[in-house]
Design brief:
Elements: E1 2-8, H1 12-22, E2 31-37, H2 40-47, E3 55-59, H3 63-66, E4 70-72, E5 78-80, E6 86-89, H4 99-102, E7 106-109, H5 115-124, E8 131-134, H6 142-148, E9 154-157, H7 161-164, E10 171-175, H8 176-184, E11 189-197, H9 202-221, H10 223-233, H11 240-250, H12 253-256, H13 259-275
Parallel strand pairs: 1-2, 1-3, 7-8, 7-9
Antiparallel strand pairs: 3-11, 4-11, 5-11, 6-9, 6-10
Helix pairs in contact: 1-9
Amino acid sequence: MTTIRISCSPDADDLFMMRALLEQRIDTGPYRFEIGTSPTDALNRLAAGKEAPEVIALSIAHYPAVSDRYLLLPHGGSLGEGYGPVVVSDPTAQRVGSIADLRTATIGVPGLTTTAWLVLRLILGPDHQARPVVIPIEPPSRIFEAVRDGEVDAGLVIHEGRLTFADEGTVSVVDLGVWWAEQTGGLPLPLGGNAIRRDLGPEVVAEVSDLLRQSIAHGLEHRDEAIAWLMRRGTALGSEAQIGEYLDMYANQRTLDYGPEGRQGVEELFRRAVAADLLQGPVEVEWAS
């Protein structure tokens, strides 16, 4: 048996994709999968380390930093179509109410390697004086506490928090996915993706990629079962309906295949980031089979 290590986030969409492998619900042939979880920023750091796993979920924004080691898989992407991470503030504090306010604000962010922080810097522009403060994504309530307590002026919320921020007493200042769609004529905003190590070789890359695709397809075909399973495991979301809403956003047919628009969104993100001197370019994306 050949062991394939996968590192992904503990969020509902990533676990949804991996459920069939975690529970051995599909035939994996000569491959055995070991699946571990870490927060997004930690995954990005792991991808560049000596113990980099064979397959890893990472921020699309971080892919250029590890593209010499990894190919981007054509499935497993989390893409926002007119929605995305949200910058939130405390309406009672009245510190931040607009993008203009954010340009000089202290902003809690989930990590400096995340796509959300890259896109927010595109929104703020080259002359902004915003000060990022890294707030751990676990526990999920931490970012909202930091906003309410005045530790930061605003918080950049990713993953399940974009559905729960109103329940936490915060309000949206800007939805990054809305801004992106307006700027790009409706392209999906690529937030996270799965990548596979190049040194596995073309045959293993193709076979492992197919098994990962099967796992995602299994989740989509057994969606109700997967939602109940996620609820039993425990998530930041409080009901099966809310988990379903989240999966509608980030674990759907676009996750099974980026499609031409999804791939164009990846290319456009890198083009804009290079033009804004936020990434060194040019960035060439190489997709696995």
